[in-house]
């Protein structure tokens, strides 16, 4: 289990946004604080899962003092988000998709703080759960 610092940001006319300084690009949001925390946990887990599937190195979590020492982080409220580190082995595969579908997948994944592999794994799991298989 690893604990990462998430930063909650809130503008007057926006949802509660959450970002992770240790994992740039992992962002999510919720309409209230409870939803923002749930979404932060989910986004962090899927991002790390995707990094593992891609063979990327998972960064060690920084301490609160280190995170808050950066002036860019001082406008956020720090929360601790725990994530279990998957022990399974990632397997590289080669698939073929239409270019427009791949572009849509990449755009969605980037917007939601996921890797391509993380998004595809998430979509496949959801499809299997929804079909009852």
From TrEMBL:
<dbReference type="Pfam" id="PF15919">
    <property type="entry name" value="HicB_lk_antitox"/>
</dbReference>
<feature type="domain" description="HicB-like antitoxin of toxin-antitoxin system">
    <location>
        <begin position="4"/>
        <end position="124"/>
    </location>
</feature>
<dbReference type="InterPro" id="IPR051404">
    <property type="entry name" value="TA_system_antitoxin"/>
</dbReference>
<dbReference type="InterPro" id="IPR031807">
    <property type="entry name" value="HicB-like"/>
</dbReference>
<dbReference type="InterPro" id="IPR035069">
    <property type="entry name" value="TTHA1013/TTHA0281-like"/>
</dbReference>
<protein>
    <submittedName>
        <fullName>RNase H-like HicB family nuclease</fullName>
    </submittedName>
</protein>
<dbReference type="InterPro" id="IPR010985">
    <property type="entry name" value="Ribbon_hlx_hlx"/>
</dbReference>
């Amino acid at each position: 289990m690893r604990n990462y610092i998430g930063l909650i940001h809130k503008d007057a006319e926006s949802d509660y946004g959450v970002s992770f300084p240790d994992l740039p690009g992992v962002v999510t949001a919720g309409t209230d604080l409870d939803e923002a925390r749930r979404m932060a946990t989910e986004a962090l887990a899927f991002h790390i899962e995707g990094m593992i599937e891609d063979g990327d190195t998972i960064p060690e979590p920084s301490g609160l003092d280190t995170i808050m020492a950066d002036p860019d982080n001082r406008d956020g409220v720090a929360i601790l988000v725990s994530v279990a580190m998957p022990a399974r082995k990632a397997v590289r595969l080669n698939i073929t998709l239409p270019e427009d579908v791949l572009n849509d997948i990449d755009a969605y994944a980037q917007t939601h703080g996921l890797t391509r592999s993380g998004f595809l794994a998430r979509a496949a799991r959801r499809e299997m759960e929804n079909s009852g298989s």
